[in-house]
Amino acid sequence: MALRTQTANAASMRLAAKLGFTEVERYEDYGAEQWLGRWSPDR
Fold first, then answer.
1. Quick check: helix, strand or coil at residue 17?
2. Distances (CA, A) of 28 to 4, 6, 7, 12
3. CA–CA distance, 26 with 16 (Å, rounded to integer)
4. In the beta sheet, which residues pair with residue 23?
5. Distance, C-alpha 3 to centroid of its chain
6. How many CA atoms lie within 13 A of 15 on its CB side?
7. What is the pLDDT of residue 36?
8. What's the CA gap between 39 and 22, in Å, rounded?
9. Which InterPro entries does UniProt cross-reference here (predicted)?
10. Cα–Cα distance between 34 and 24 in angstroms, integer?
11. What confidence score (pLDDT) does residue 7 get?
12. Which one of 5, 8, 20, 37 is CB 3.0 to 4.6 Å from 12, fit for a cystine?
């Protein structure tokens, strides 16, 4: 399972961490830095 959000969205970044998503990559899109995280049930 993957999750994408803008790094400027602090609330989404906190929620992703709380849910156990880990960073896979950061990239530029839509004129802003984006964050891609992956969740694994093994965590």
1. helix
2. 12, 9, 10, 17
3. 14
4. 37
5. 5
6. 9
7. 98
8. 6
9. Acyl_CoA_acyltransferase (IPR016181)
10. 11
11. 97
12. 5
Residue 43: the pLDDT is 59
Name the residue type at position 38: R
Q: Which two tokens stand for residue 8?
A: 């400027």
Q: Indicate the number of domains in the chain.
A: 1
Is residue 19 in some structural domain? yes
Q: Residue 9's domain spans which residues?
A: 2-38
Asked whether residue 43 is assigned to any structural domain, the reply reads no
Distances (CA, A) of 34 to 15, 21, 41: 15, 14, 23
In the DSSP assignment, the letter for residue 39 is -
pTM of the model: 0.83
